[in-house]
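Structural biology now treats backbone shape like a language. To illustrate, our science desk offers a sequence and the tokens encoding its fold:
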Amino acid sequence: MSSEKYPDNIMINTLTGVIIMRMHQILFEAKATKTVAIYPGRFHPFHKGHKFVYDYLSKKYGTVYIATSDKQEEGSPFSFEDKKKMMILTGVPADKIVNERQPYIASNIVSRLDPKDTGVVFGVGKKDMEGDNPRFKTGLKKNGEPTYYQPNTDDKVTHDEHGYLEVVPTQTFKVLGQPATSATELRKQYATLDDASAIKFIEDLFGKHDVEVQNIMDNKLGRK
């Protein structure tokens, strides 16, 4: 056999391997009989617009966890405990808020789920899926295998095989009579407010006022 044949043989063997692998996945991947949703994010700050997404996922999937980190740096002033207090103020149950070093992987949450029957859906924003470098990439890898993250579907496999992405809706709301803007702009605005406006800002952002949350906002955002 000439050396020119080797590349063809290698290609055939590789293709055969991919076909066998896909047949195995079709035949043996466990089908999910229940689904848990994860809502990951930075949340600086968390607010009632995010609570709207949590409620949307809760109505659709029942069990929903919020995944966020303790990372603090420029543009990310709030600790995990700060954000947890904000989430609880909006009405999120404390036991559904999880500290994750990498919220968009959420290994602490996923490790709690039964790999025999539970699928997982990640609720993501539209901007996470847009542009030349989206946060999540779906489809196939270079070797022909499907990527871990896949578009959401009714027919799910368990979370040890794939996670599914659902682009969640957004809700507009007003803060101090104006449409809520980006987190960056909200943080800048709060730092400039007098006491009465700060109280109203807190009410508009979270749905009600709370002294402890206001103290967090004052200290972390430099309102004097």
In short: Confidence is low (pLDDT under 50) at residues 1-6. Strands lie at 34-40, 64-68, 97-99, 118-124, 149-151, 163-167, 174-175, 178-179. The two ends are 83 Å apart (CA to CA).
